[in-house]
Each structure stands twice: as structure tokens, then as C-alpha cells.
From TrEMBL:
Entry keyword set: Membrane, Transmembrane, Transmembrane helix, Transport
Family the entry assigns: Belongs to the major facilitator superfamily.
GO molecular-function terms, A-Z: transmembrane transporter activity
Transmembrane helix recorded as keyword: yes
Organism: Cecembia calidifontis
Protein's UniProt name: Fucose permease
Length: 390
């Protein structure tokens, strides 16, 4: 196969892989009330489930480099897809809480491996613009998940059918990785070894590095909280029909995806730091509109605004690291930020869930607004206290 054609083929597979990576994240928020009812467990146990998902994600992402020294990238990607597919099947057939925990742990392990490995490959083989679009395709997957479950609902099927369907997609992708395993070769360079000379301890001695880590913790916690709790709030607290609520959840993930595409063009001509100020303000306005719930239209607009405004934050903050802290610290700081993002994505939704025991489900929209305000204040303080090179 011609080298250029081969590269385009791998880009296409990577796009499909990132869609499949987002699909399970879009499923759980809608399926959770049904799973909770089936197993007879409280709704706030979603937080426990998310913690085990993150534990699986971190366990695989932290050991990938060692595993890759013994197994080729193509085979490891294939195995990870088989693992996620099997885990999704486990969700559908599980009748016990402990079995569900095992399923979500291995779902996180498989997803973490796919995410990390494809980013390693993309950074070595693809242009920065292609890497940016990869994350937009994740949003397409997260948007499609609720739509798939909603479609199965309208056809008279249960949430289990959606999990079997998405699990089958993961298995099919694993077969595709297996068949193309020889194409997924990455030549190592000396960049990593040079960057490793900067110790973690030296990096963490910078106080503002900790603040940037906190920003990723809050941001991802907020994004995951909205995605996972929205369907439950709408159906259990605001009496929105399940089919309509599913479309609302898709609107959130869809606005995130559309935002990433549009902001990608906007950032070519505008300063990222200024764009992020606007994005932070948009999240606060959206969270306030959804919390007050003055009308259905205002709440719906608030959800769209939260998703759209969240779009540029994660990728733009990652891109700004070399400019904010210096290139020699970039690799360490980005590693800390991504880890903090995964932990925040588990802890903050869990905290929101625990609060419902005392204050009810409507405390969760209040927590959205509080998190949005803290996110904006942290960002403003960070930028004001750093010397930025434009």
C-alpha cells in the first residue's frame, strides 16, 4: 500500500476508534436509572461506579509503555477493544452489583489503553490538526450513545440492546485492529528521554502548576457530571419524558462536539487565552440557566451553552502548557493534568450524587454552577499570575 494512502487509512481507523471510545460514555448517563432500578441500588452509587472506571483507566494508561515493550501496538489496541466490548456485554447481562463493578473497571482499562495508545501513535505519525480532530470524533461518539439508546427505546427495546450493539462495535473494531496490526508501528525517538530529565519534584515545586492541575480536575468533573446526571435530573426531578431527555443529553454532547469543530477554526485567528475567558463565562451562564429552570427553553439553552462553552477548554489548556510554563516542563505537567482530569471525572460526579441523599436531585444543578464559578476563578488567577508569551 502507498505510504500516503496507508496514512489516510490509519487516520480513518483512528477516527472510528475515537467515536467508539466516546460511545460508552454517552450510554451510561441514560442507562443508569434503569440499571439502578434493576439491581435495587441507590442512584448515588453512580459515583462509586465512576471511581472504579477511572481506576481501570489509570491502571492501563500508566502501564502501557511497559506492555508495549512486549506486545505490538496493533495487538494491544485489538485486545483493548475486545476488553471494552466484553465489558459492555457484562453491563447488559449483569444481575449483581459486584459483577457490574468488575465490568466497569475493565471497561475503563480498555478505554484508557485505546485513548493513550492512539494519542501516542497520533503524536508520532499525524499532524497537530489531525490530532485535534481526533478529540472531536470522541464527541461524535459521546453524542451518538444517547441517540442509540433513545432509538432502541422508541423501537420497544430496553437499554440492554444498546449495550449489546455498542459492544459489538467494539469487538468489530478489535478485529479491524488485528487485521491491520502490522501498520501500527511507532519508531521511538529521544524526545521522551530528554524530557524525563526534568523531575516530577522540580515540576511540582511551581505553585501555579498545582493550580493548572486543579483546573483540569474541576473542568472534567463538571463535564462528566453534566453528561452522567442530566438524564436522571430531567426524568426523575423535572418529569421530562425519557425520549425527550435522551435528546437533551445528546444535545449536550453534540454541542461539545460542534464547539470543538468551530473553536478549532476560531483559534486559528484569535488568542486562546482570550477565547477561554469567553468560554468560562459561557459555562457560568449556561449552568445558571439550567439551575434556575425558569422555562423548558431556558434549561435546554443552558445545557447547549454549557456543552458549547466547554468545548475549547481541555484541548486549548493542553496546547497552552509550553507557553505558560516552558517547554521543558510540558510533558510532566500535561501528564499531571490528564491524571487530574480523570480523577475529577470520578470524584465530582460522586460528590454530587452523595449530596442528593440530603438535598435531593436539584442540588446537582447547583453544584454545576458552583463548579463553573470555581473553574473560572482558578483560570483567571492562573493567567493573571503568569507571564504569558504571545
Amino acid at each position: 500500500m502507498d505510504k500516503s494512502l496507508r496514512l489516510r487509512f490509519l487516520i480513518l481507523i483512528s477516527f472510528i476508534a475515537f467515536i467508539s471510545l466516546g460511545l460508552p460514555d454517552g450510554l451510561l448517563g441514560i442507562a443508569w436509572p434503569f440499571i439502578s432500578n434493576k439491581l435495587g441500588i441507590p442512584l448515588d452509587n453512580l459515583g462509586v461506579l465512576l471511581m472504579f472506571f477511572v481506576a481501570g483507566y489509570l491502571s492501563s494508561s500508566l502501564t502501557n509503555s511497559k506492555i508495549m515493550s512486549k506486545i505490538s501496538l496493533g495487538w494491544l489496541l485489538a485486545f483493548s477493544c475486545f476488553l471494552t466490548g466484553t465489558s459492555l456485554f457484562g453491563f447488559a447481562v449483569s444481575d449483581y452489583w459486584i459483577f457490574l463493578i468488575f465490568s466497569v473497571y475493565f471497561l475503563g482499562a480498555g478505554g484508557g489503553a485505546i485513548d493513550t495508545l492512539l494519542n501516542i501513535f497520533a503524536s508520532a505519525k499525524f499532524s497537530p490538526s489531525v490530532v485535534n480532530w481526533l478529540h472531536a470524533f470522541y464527541g461524535i461518539g459521546a453524542t451518538s450513545g444517547p441517540l442509540i439508546l433513545t432509538w432502541f427505546f422508541t423501537m420497544g427495546h430496553t437499554w440492554k440492546s444498546g449495550y449489546f450493539f455498542v459492544g459489538s462495535i467494539q469487538i468489530s473494531l478489535g478485529i479491524l485492529f488485528l487485521l491491520t496490526s502490522k501498520m501500527w508501528a511507532v519508531k521511538e525517538d529521544n524526545k521522551e528521554s530528554k524530557q524525563e530529565k526534568i523531575s516530577y519534584r522540580l515540576t511540582l515545586q511551581k505553585p501555579l502548576v498545582w493550580l493548572s492541575i486543579v483546573i483540569f480536575f474541576i473542568y472534567t468533573g463538571l463535564e462528566v457530571s453534566v453528561g452522567q446526571w442530566l438524564f436522571t435530573i430531567l426524568t426523575k426531578s423535572r418529569t421530562i419524558p425519557e425520549e425527550s431527555a435522551g435528546l437533551w443529553v445528546s444535545t449536550f454532547w453534540g454541542s461539545l462536539t460542534i464547539g470543538r469543530i468551530l473553536f478549532g477554526f476560531l483559534l486559528q485567528r484569535n488568542n486562546a487565552i482570550q477565547v477561554l475567558y469567553i468560554a468560562m463565562a459561557g459555562i457560568i451562564l449556561g449552568a445558571g440557566a439550567f439551575m434556575t429552570d425558569l422555562s423548558t427553553l431556558m434549561s435546554f439553552t443552558g445545557i447547549f451553552l454549557i456543552g458549547f462553552s466547554c468545548a475549547p477548554i481541555f484541548p486549548s489548556m493542553i496546547a497552552l502548557v509550553p507557553n505558560l510554563f516552558g517547554e521543558k516542563f510540558a510533558a510532566n505537567i500535561i501528564g499531571f493534568q490528564v491524571s487530574a482530569a480523570m480523577i475529577g471525572g470520578a470524584i465530582l460526579p460522586a460528590v454530587s450524587g452523595f449530596l442528593t441523599d440530603t438535598f435531593g436531585l436539584e442540588i446537582i444543578p447547583v453544584s454545576f454552577l458552583i463548579q463553573a464559578i470555581f473553574l473560572a476563578l482558578s483560570y483567571v488567577f492562573l493567567i493573571k499570575n503568569l507571564k504569558i508569551k504571545y
